[in-house]
Amino acid sequence: MMFHAFESQAAAAEVLARRVAADLAAVIGRRGHAVLAVSGGRSPVPFLQALSAEVLDWSRVCVTLVDERVVAPDHADSNAALVRDHLLQGGGADAVFRPLVSVAANVDAELAQAAAQWQTPDVVVLGMGDDGHTASLFPDAANLAEGLDPANPAALLAVVPPEAPHTRISMTLAEILRSGKLYLAIAGDNKRRVLEHASRTLSAAQPVSHLLQQTENPLHVYWAA
């Protein structure tokens, strides 16, 4: 884990946006196109807005999601709606967007469709909850062991959170580790305490600990006060 601290969320968002844009540009230079997976929630909004303003050949970028609630695309809790509103603007509007949920009619059908068009990301920007979940790998979820299995060949799985609303589709830990550059963006003293505890104690009670304590793919943590 490589830890980067910032005095404000705005400063962290700007630096992270520049770094992610540089990573994507490097991949485009090598391969001609790049895949970016981002997280939802309210915390990533400054980062998404900063990234949309970065100068990049956005037409060669495919944007997808780390996880998604199985809700209609215009639902207030839709991560896809958040990405459309804050990242697919300005230059970012030229990116190709592949959401994980289309009409939210059937979880199994949505999962199968998302898996069929899935491409392993070149850059992944994760978040973390106060309970230590990352992506939609929640403590006490019925299939958490499957989600955390580093040998799982599946890229995505359906998750029913024990407490949070809505069934989710989420990247598995194995697919996160198979991806390219990994970032974790968090803010506040409480999340820093969660991060520090999870970096010392490997436990399903804090799923993010399995990401923090692996050595397969370096994790770059951007924390803002």
Summarize the structure.
By secondary structure, the chain is an alpha/beta fold. The chain is built from eight helices and ten strands. The model has no long low-confidence stretch (mean pLDDT about 95).
Biggest β-sheet description: 7 strands, parallel
Regions with pLDDT < 50 over 5+ consecutive residues? none
H/E element string? EHEHEEHEHEHEEHEHHE
Radius of gyration: 16 Å
Task: Give the overall shape, derived from the CA principal axes.
Answer: globular
Total strand count, please? 10
% residues in beta strands: 15-25%
Structural class: alpha/beta
What share of residues is helical? 25-40%
**What is the typical, i.e. mean, pLDDT?**
97
- What is the rounded distance between the termini? 18 Å
Q: Name the strands of the widest sheet in spatial order.
A: 1-10-9-6-2-3-5
Function: Hydrolysis of 6-phosphogluconolactone to 6-phosphogluconate.
Pathway: Carbohydrate degradation; pentose phosphate pathway; D-ribulose 5-phosphate from D-glucose 6-phosphate (oxidative stage): step 2/3
Family: Belongs to the glucosamine/galactosamine-6-phosphate isomerase family. 6-phosphogluconolactonase subfamily.
Protein name: 6-phosphogluconolactonase
Topology, element by element:
Layout (H helix, E strand, L loop, with lengths): L1 E5 L2 H23 L2 E5 L6 H8 L8 E5 L1 E3 L9 H8 L9 E2 L9 H11 L5 E4 L17 H5 L7 E4 L8 E4 L1 H6 L2 E7 L1 H12 L7 H5 L6 E6 L1
Parallel strand pairs: 1-10, 2-3, 2-6, 3-5, 6-9, 9-10
Antiparallel strand pairs: 4-8, 7-8
Helix pairs in contact: 1-2
